[in-house]
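Feature request disguised as a bug: please show the residue count (104) next to XdhC family protein in the output. Example input:
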Amino acid sequence: MADNIVEQAAAWRAAGRRVALATVVATWGSSPRPVGSQMAVDDRGSMAGSVSGGCIESAVAHEAAKSMEDGEPRLLSFGITNEMAWEVGLACGGQVQVYVEAVE
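Example output, currently without the count:
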């Protein structure tokens, strides 16, 4: 699946769009996507792939847009405590780190 995401990012770049690629680089505890999961975002707000199963993707897309603007990569950290997880219906908490960079 990761190849399709990279291929989509390459197609967007070939069409003249700016693109950023987000990659899960670390997880602790419960995480919806494993290390290596990727999501591509273009400057029109299109997305391909997934880094979280939906729960943090809007924040990642927002940071991807910033990365496309300023060219700076970002390391994002997201987490939920065990107590918070139980309140929203999850079995346990966890953390995920996502690296976001513009594709040139």
